[in-house]
Design a protein that fits this description.
The protein has about 950 residues and is α/β, with parallel strands linked by helices. The chain has 4 domains: about 80 residues, no CATH class; about 270 residues, Thiamin diphosphate (ThDP)-binding fold, Pyr/PP domains (Rossmann fold, 3-Layer(aba) Sandwich); about 190 residues, Rossmann fold; about 120 residues, Multifunctional 2-oxoglutarate metabolism enzyme, C-terminal domain (Rossmann fold, 3-Layer(aba) Sandwich). The strands form 5 sheets. Strands 3-9-10-8-7-4-6-5-11 form a 9-stranded mixed beta sheet. It has a 7-stranded mixed beta sheet with strand order 15-12-16-17-19-18-23, sandwiched between helices. Strands 20-22-21-24-25 form a 5-stranded mixed beta sheet, sandwiched between helices. The N terminus is likely disordered.
């Protein structure tokens, strides 16, 4: 039947005549964009012989010959001959439609101020396609254009295309490769080429939102003149936009919405969307302090949570706390969303919506934006797509112009890297803003991918309210002074169309002003907050001495160890990996001492066995950078991957290990966000080398070290940072221990340098079992991973606990000790080996395994045996100006007996973390060991 139907179509088609002049341009249009031709033509062209051109000059030769053959056969078959000129016009019409889809946004009415000077796009001119005169009255087939009819007069078609693509919305989506997604967008845009109709109630809501946005800013400006508030004025449409977005999300199944934004308009969003009481905001402006613990933060960095009533039920809103570092909050938001989705059991649902707000210069200028886009479809970081909104006030900071801030036409072009659709919209047309917002959310929910809205507005004041914008942007601000506010612009429009009277407009304005004076909640959808997320109560009020039980019987360890070493016989491992697993099984059976990988994996197994979830990400975390972990087993036969820790038993916790994208900043921020929303398990970020954490320093400085102090946000994230001086040069030796110690205060985080497998076992378990959630920074090893001396027994794992400091372990009589060497990490093994070789028995070596909080009590107990010693030395591998010496020296002095001296043994101060020459490294290492042990070089 299909062949008969195709034959019938063939006999009546244009192939049946000598129509090469028609077919060849149509085929050219197909090559440029298959969607630009009718489905019937596309089916035929799809079946044409595939030519592998050796040069572009030869690409169509065989196709043309094929067309000529078809034409001859058609003539022999008695087919109809069409008008070549009219057929050529038909092709041009399809090309014109395609041009509007591709470039209509460049002629759209997007700038409220009318200052943009868009270049004329020739493709959008009918005459460019030889369409003119009588052609405007002719009916043409509109191809895939979804205007509701198969044919339209050219003039009417052009009007519809202009209304669709050159009005208040400029749509960029033809860069997307998915035909389904492009067709979906066209199905939403093109049937609505006429004005979108909203009810009077809708329009009243939009005007109320604009009134609230303007009213709050004017109120604050009058009540607190000169105070910084980073006004939203000019971008007022953001308020009705966000409220419409939340309502629409609620109708479509959302239960939680997490928002990340910088300071511009933040106070307005807090009051007019999330429902923060205006009285509380006014108190913050007045400088009143509630007496809560911590240093606090400025009001335009504060977060907030509330519940919001929608037609689909209550939606929990969370505005993330945010420092001034632009765009860094976005991966934090996505991490929080992923944790909430994981808790709900499905990261692909629409139940949790991330919304991120960006600045026009920041989205183009900050590298973390690219990192976050790149993460959006990666397995470890998927959140089902993000609705991204750019508050594009056309002046990034104070003096910036487009030619200074980016190299692209639009600030949003970076979103094309992930083929996200981009909708530019004139912020003075609030109805278009709301319409495109709903469209964007529906795209995100349908295709689970990012979508971007470019809210093109302006900034009525300077960067802050004390700034003078005319000094650097005179023409723009002359125009702004004369330009009506968005509220007035829309109110005038509603009155002109007869929707409202002036008295009604005034009443809306007066009602909002009266509500402001009362200092209460301004959002009618606000509801008392219910519990939508995990309960943090069990983790509050605990300190470092909180009790926990880290023990596990030898039998249990052996049972779990056997399970974590099990894999199907047919799953063939690479030979080195097979040896590691065979050795690990021998360790579990007590035939060998446990190495680092075995103890670490056993820690995970015991936690999973107790029902705790574990999430581990890093650039090489599946196997471990140094080939020690191998949590993921890759078959050498079919490349399938097996993770034994996922298959201990049915009731275990969830284990996830991901090799992350090659990023530090965005990934660490994501994991921070994850742990602020999920305290119950163990979340780990592992650097490939410890000093790679440099790329995430903003996250460490602004979130990990101070998030609790500034915002009261607890976080139990663990960082594994490989650290140790093995002669690998300045970039692969130091995790910059000194930087973390410098940030330590107020018991804000833990900094540990474990030196045995048993220590890492108990340290990881302690991080979960102790009911306290603060970051754990680990200087993890490299060479110790396989050092025979750095091993532990099953008994040490079974009956021990994490020791903040380790006393002398060799047979040295404390009474004979004349010097005590304090150290941390790998250097201990160098010291111990040299001491044995030199048969020294009057020097004790004490390891400090937790440098912060400093273990004063533990050391006091250890030093009871050394009260007679007057000679103490701190030995480190790092240069003198790095490592622990400067940042922890005051702790060392406090810990040693009164009257004792303290000296330094280590590398001299250096601008670089380590030398690059192996011979120099060896000489330096031997010298610092000899110095600590008083051995003459």
């Amino acid at each position: 039947m299909e062949e008969v139907a195709m034959q019938a179509w063939w006999e009546s088609s244009h192939f049946a005549g000598a129509n090469a002049a028609y077919i060849e341009p149509l085929y050219e249009a197909y090559l440029e964009d298959p969607d630009s031709v009718d489905i019937e033509w596309r089916r035929i062209f799809d079946k044409l012989p595939i030519v592998k051109p050796e040069s572009t000059e030869q690409s169509h030769i065989k196709i043309r010959e094929y067309f000529r053959t078809l034409a001859k056969e058609g003539n022999r078959g008695g087919g109809q001959v069409s008008d070549p000129e009219l057929d050529a016009k038909q092709v041009k019409v399809l090309q014109l439609i395609n041009a509007f889809r591709f470039r209509g946004h460049q002629h759209a009415n997007l700038d409220p101020l009318g200052l943009w000077r868009q270049e004329r796009v020739l493709d959008l001119d009918p005459s460019f396609h030889n369409l003119e005169g009588d052609d405007f009255e002719r009916e043409f087939n509109v191809g895939s254009y979804q205007g509701g009819r198969e044919t339209m007069p050219l003039g009417e078609l052009i009007d519809a295309l202009k209304q669709t693509y050159c009005g208040s919305i400029g749509a960029e989506y033809m860069h997307i490769t998915s035909t389904e997604e492009k067709r979906w967008i066209q199905s939403r845009l093109e049937p609505k080429h006429a004005a979108v109709h909203f009810s009077k109630e809708d329009k009243l809501e939009f005007l109320a939102g604009l009134t609230a946005a303007e009213g709050l800013e004017k109120y604050l400006g009058a009540k607190f003149p000169g105070a910084k508030r980073f006004s939203l004025e000019g971008g007022d449409a953001l308020i009705p936009m966000l409220k419409a977005l939340i309502h629409h999300a609620g109708e479509n199944g959302a239960k939680e919405v997490v928002v990340g934004m910088a300071h511009r308009g933040r106070l307005n969003v807090l009051v007019n969307v999330l429902g923060k009481k205006t009285g509380e905001l006014f108190d913050e402006f007045a400088g009143k302090h509630s007496g809560g613990w911590g240093s606090g933060d400025v009001k335009y960095h504060q977060g907030f949570s509330s519940d919001f009533e929608t037609e689909g039920g209550k939606v929990h809103l969370a505005l993330a706390f945010n420092p001034s570092h632009l765009e860094i909050v976005n991966p934090v938001v996505l991490g929080s969303v992923r944790a909430r989705l994981d808790r709900r059991g499905n990261p692909d649902t629409n139940t949790v919506l991330p919304i991120t707000l960006h600045g026009d210069s920041a989205i183009a200028g900050q590298g973390v934006v690219q990192e976050t886009f790149n993460m959006s479809q990666a397995r470890a970081f998927k959140v089902g797509g993000t609705v991204r909104i750019v508050i594009n006030n056309q002046v990034g900071f104070t003096t910036s112009n487009q030619e200074d801030t980016r190299s692209t036409q639009y600030c949003t072009d970076i979103a094309k890297m992930v083929q996200a659709p981009i909708f530019h919209v004139n912020a003075d047309d609030v109805e278009a803003v709301v319409e495109v917002t709903k469209l964007a959310l529906d795209f995100r929910n349908t295709f689970k991918r990012d979508v971007l809205i470019d809210l093109i507005c302006y900034r009525r004041h300077g960067h802050n309210e004390a700034d003078e914008p005319n000094a650097t942007q005179p023409l723009m601000y002359q125009k702004i002074r004369k330009h009506p506010t968005p509220r007035k612009h829309y109110a005038d429009r509603l009155m002109a169309e007869g929707t409202l009277e002036q008295s009604e407009v005034s009443q809306i304005n007066n009602d909002y002003r009266e509500s402001l004076d009362q200092g209460e909640c301004m959002v009618k959808e606000w509801r008392p907050m219910e519990s939508h997320s995990v309960d943090w109560t069990p983790y509050l009020g605990h300190d470092w001495d909180a009790n926990y039980d880290s023990t596990a019987s030898v039998e249990r360890l052996q049972h779990l160890g056997a399970l974590m070493c099990s894999y199907p016989e047919g799953h063939k491992l690479q030979s080195r990996v097979a040896k590691i697993y065979n050795d690990r099984l021998a360790m579990i059976n007590g035939e060998r001492a446990l190495d680092w990988g075995a103890a670490e994996t056993l820690a995970y197994a015991t936690l999973l066995d107790e029902g705790y979830d574990i999430r581990l990400t890093g650039q090489d975390s599946g196997r471990g950078t140094f080939f020690h972990r191998h949590a993921v087993l890759h078959s050498q036969q079919d490349a399938t991957a097996l993770i034994p820790l996922k298959h201990l038993h049915e009731k275990q916790g969830k284990f996830e290990v991901f090799d992350s994208v090659l990023s530090e900043e965005a990934v660490l921020a994501f994991e921070y966000g994850y742990t602020t929303a999920e305290p119950r398990g163990l979340t780990i970020w592992e650097a490939q080398f410890g000093d790679f954490a440099n790329g995430a320093q903003v996250v460490i400085d602004q979130f990990l070290s101070s998030g609790e102090q500034k915002w009261g946000r607890l976080c139990g994230l663990t960082l594994l940072l490989p650290h140790g001086y093995e002669g690998q040069g300045p970039e692969h030796s130091s995790a910059r221990l000194e930087r973390f110690l410098q940030l330590c205060a107020d018991h804000n985080m833990q900094v540990c340098v474990p030196s045995t497998p048993a220590q890492v076992f108990h340290m990881l378990r302690r991080q979960v079992l102790r009911k306290m959630r603060r970051p754990l920074i680990v200087m993890s090893p490299k060479s110790l991973l396989r050092l025979p001396a750095a091993s532990s027994s099953l008994d040490e794992l079974s009956n021990g606990r994490f020791h903040n400091a380790i006393r002398e372990v060799e047979d040295i009589d404390p009474k004979n000790v004349e010097r005590v060497v304090l150290c941390s990490g790998k250097v201990y093994y160098d010291l111990a080996e040299q001491r044995r070789k030199s048969e020294i028995n009057n020097i004790a070596i004490i390891r400090i395994e937790q440098l912060y909080p400093f273990p004063h009590e533990c050391l006091a107990e250890i030093f009871k045996d050394y009260q007679h010693v007057k000679d103490f030395v701190w030995c480190q591998e790092e240069p003198q100006n790095q490592g622990a010496w400067y940042c922890s020296q005051h702790h060392f002095w406090t810990a040693i007996p009164k009257g004792a001296s303290l000296v330094y043994a280590g590398r001299e101060a250096s601008a670089a973390p380590a030398v690059g020459y192996a011979s120099v490294h060896i000489a330096q290492q031997q010298a610092l060991v000899n110095d600590a042990l008083m051995i003459d070089s």
